Each structure stands twice: as C-alpha cells, then as structure tokens.
Amino acid sequence: MSQELWTAVDKYLEKVLMLPDPALDAAREASAAAGLPEIAVTPSQGKLLYLLARMVRARRILEIGTLGGYSTIWLGRALPPRGRVVTLEADPRHFEVARENIKRAGLAKVVNQRLGIALETLPRLAEEGAGPFDFVFIDADKESSVEYFEWALRLSRPGAAILVDNVIRDGEVADPQTTEERVLGIRRLNEVLAQEPRVSATTIQTVGSKGYDGFTLALVGGG
Ligand code: SAH
Ligand code: DHB
Ligand code: MG
Is the peptide bond before 132 cis (omega within 30 degrees of 0)? Predict the structure, then answer.
C-alpha cells in the first residue's frame, strides 16, 4: 500500500464519479498559480463536505480556514436559496485569491469572507449575533483546534454538524510521545470531545492523494 496507489485510486474515482467542473478546476489552478500551498480538500472530500452540509439541511455554514476557497465553493453550493457561508482566513493573499475563485464560481453573494485571525474574528461573529450555524468546517491552524471547536459549539444549533480536517496526520496523533504542536492540538481536541456531553463524535482515518489523514465528525445534540 502506497501513496502512488492512493493517488491513482483518487484519480480513478474523480474520473468515474465526478463531472468536469470548470469553477472548481479554475479555483485549484488559480490557487496553485498564486503559489498557495496545495492543501485544499480533494474533489472527493469536497463532495463529502457538500453532501454532509446538505444532509443537515444547512442554511448557515461557518468555515475556519478559507485558503483559496476550494472547500468554500463546495459548501456554498450545498446551500438553499438565501443560505450563507461565513469563511475565516488570516492570510490576506489567500483571502484575495479566494475572493476571485468564489466570484468566478458565482458565489460572491452567498459567501461572506472575513479576513483576520480566527480567534479574533469568532468573538466578533458572536457579538454580531451571526449564526446559529448548521454546519461548521474547522480547517485552519491545528494548534487551536480546541478553541475552534468550542466556538463552533457555541455558535451552532442542536442538530448541527462540526467537521474537523487533518486529525490523523500520518498516524502521529496516536503517538503519546509526539512533540508536534499541531498534533498535540488534535490530541487535546480528542480529550475535550471525550468528555463533552453536548456532542456525539467519531473520527475516520482516510488515505488518498493528500496522504494518510482523517476527519472528525461531531453531531451537536449528544446521544
Ligand atoms: N479549507 C481549505 C483549506 C484551508 S488550509 C480547503 O480545503 O480548500 C488552512 C488555512 O487556514 C490557510 O489558508 C491558513 O492561512 C489559514 N489559517 C491558519 N491560521 C489561521 C488563523 N489563526 N486564523 C484564520 N485562518 C488561519
Ligand atoms: C496542512 C493543512 C491542511 O488543512 C491540510 O488539509 C493538509 C495539510 C498543513 O498545514 O500541512
Ligand atoms: Mg485541511
């Protein structure tokens, strides 16, 4: 089992299951051309975000970590008329590239981009009375995963889904000796999830063109 095989299978799945998609392809190409890190969700993962958002009938979506807006476009497309995505990004260059990509995808009116450090933007969203959100995608700096999760919980309604990206990191998450801050951030999140009665959560490991990683999915409302 190897990265080459995982990548080949992702390519195969994209070819057989996904229609050509000019706006998404352009978003990926423009992001790469602008020198953004190539760490957006894969097409199959993007479609998973879209399906999960539709499954909870999301009208308000919060995303933490926009990058070039690739995942944002998938989430924006999951919305019914008058639905909204609020997406948070700290890097002005990423923010600008995302703005063009989102505009090209016809979602400029649906997506509300906020430039700034998410831990500063989130309290402002709360003050504004933004939300409650039906779906939250946490995909920014992993060090702050616990704080993002707590904000997601505070800003979401019962029945909402919270999805966290990059929670396995080549399996390093299971290493109790790890000193990597990003991995420690996820380990702290797991401790919080384990004793948080307001959510029911599971973590699924994934392989694919982005390597060996995983998602945590939490349903607000416990059980
Ligand atoms: N969700 C995107 C990928 C996000 S990559 C997709 O799948 O298409 C992570 C992003 O989080 C990067 O753009 C990075 O600049 C941003 N980020 C990192 N730390 C942040 C912070 N403290 N506040 C807001 N954004 C942050
Ligand atoms: C990284 C960040 C991500 O959000 C991701 O999906 C993959 C990698 C990173 O910072 O390396
Ligand atoms: Mg990610």
Answer: yes
* Pocket flag, ligand 2, residue 63 (CB < 6 Å): no
Going by pLDDT thresholds of 50, 70 and 90, the confidence category of residue 58 is: very high
Residue with tokens 């002005």: 92
- Which residue of 72, 73, 91 sits with most ligand 1 atoms within 8 Å of its CB, as the best mutation to test the pocket? 91
Residue 221 lies in a domain: no
Which residues span the domain enclosing 70? 3-160
**Which atom of ligand 2 is least distant from the CA of 67?**
4
Q: Are 177 and 185 in contact (CB under 8 A)?
A: no
* Ligand 1 pocket, residue 65 CB under 6 Å: yes
Q: In sequence order, what are the beta bridge partners of 64?
A: 88, 138
- For the cut 70, the answer to whether the pLDDT of residue 223 exceeds it is no
Helix (H, G, I), strand (E, B) or coil at 61: strand
Q: What pLDDT, in 10s, does the model give residues 164-186? A: 999 999 999 999 999 999 999 99
User: How far is CA 193 from its chain centroid?
Assistant: 18
In a domain, 71, yes or no: yes
Within a domain: 120: yes
15 found inside a domain: yes
pLDDT tier for residue 192 given thresholds of 50, 70 and 90: very high
Query: What is the per-residue pLDDT across 73-115, written as a single tens digit (0 to 9) for each?
Result: 999 999 999 999 999 999 999 999 999 999 999 999 999 999 9
CATH value at residue 50? 3.40.50.150
What is the CA(11)–ligand 1 centre distance, in A?
Answer: 25
Number of domains in the chain: 1
pTM of the model: 0.98
